[in-house]
Amino acid sequence: MAGPPPKPWPTGKAMQVEPLVRRVLAPNPSPYTYTGTQTYIVGLGDGCAVIDPGPDEKEHLLALDAAIGEEHVCAIMCTHTHRDHSPAAKTLSARTGAPVVGCAPLVIDSDLPRSDEAFDPTYEPDRVMEDGEQMTGPGWTLTAIATPGHVSNHLCFALEESGALFTGDHVMGWSTSVVIPPDGDMSDYMKSLEKLHAREDRVYYPAHGEAVDKPRQLVRGMLGHRRQRENQILRHLSDGPHAASDFVPKMYKGLDARLHKAAEMSVTAHLIDLEQRGLVARSGDVWQTI
């Protein structure tokens, strides 16, 4: 997990990242959102789509108003329903009359510790997009790419005219995506990474952090990293049974103590995947190889 770049960050400013795409950074930086959530506006002039409208905060909504100006908003599109991505959809829809489309609603109440945002209970889409479905506007076409794993309802959106892919939290250049059970699924996450690796997208625009200009190379590295973690787990289990927390000091040496619980949940996601594949078993909180 990389540290954020030096301030000042371009919070609230509309940045043109390519001819059809503008980016507005929300004022919600944190250890898990990096410099904040990046809302993307696709289209120029006659009509646009807003991807991941972000938190329902006055400062961010005013910045989006300024960036959109008098332009018609055709759709408000959400990659998933964590609270740093979708809450502004409802307010922005009321202001613009645009439908909310994209991921399915998902709210999971859990008392398990999180290392990402909780779910947005206000999200009510007018249309849920399935894998391969498209949203079109003047001069642009966005195709939904189902990428479950980080959460089960996660979508990416491919901009067909330019070869760009809006990756939400599925792939980011500054950090690996958090996969936290029960809503996060490591098996699904790996399959979704393989799905993107098979594509030929030109550039990724994640919801946090800079654009990724060598996307297949990054995804290949992420797949390798996850397989390395899996091998570490199996190697440590060969020495005897472990609780999930036992792996953290062995596998994440020097990790900030504040991130230990997040690391433990990531290990748990791997263990559940290995269990489903018949390689490990658990008794209570203790895991062992079969």
Report on the architecture of this protein.
Helix 3 runs antiparallel to helix 4 (215-237) and helix 5 (244-251) packs across helix 6. By secondary structure, the protein is of the alpha/beta class. The strands form three sheets. It has a seven-stranded mixed β-sheet. Strands 8-9-10-11-12 form a five-stranded mixed β-sheet, with no helix packed on it. A three-stranded antiparallel β-sheet has the order 13-15-14. Strand 3 and strand 4 form a beta hairpin. The chain has helices spanning 58-68, 88-96, 186-197, 215-237, 244-251, 260-276, and strands spanning 14-18, 21-25, 38-42, 48-51, 73-78, 100-102, 127-128, 134-137, 140-146, 155-159, 164-168, 203-206, 242-243, 280-283, 286-289. It is built from six helices and 15 strands.
Averaged pLDDT, please? 94
Count of individual helical segments:
6
What summary fits the major beta sheet? 7 strands, mixed
Shape: elongated
The stretches of 5 or more residues where confidence is low (pLDDT under 50) are none
In angstroms, what separates the terminal alpha carbons? 33 Å
Query: What is the count of β-strands?
Result: 15
The sequence of SSEs as H and E is: EEEEHEHEEEEEEHEHEHHEE
Sheet with the most strands: spatial strand order: 1-2-3-4-5-6-7
Give me the secondary-structure category. Answer: alpha/beta
DSSP strand content: 15-25%
Tell me which oligomeric state these chains represent. single chain
Helicity, as a percent range: 25-40%
Using only C-alpha atoms, the radius of gyration works out to: 19 Å
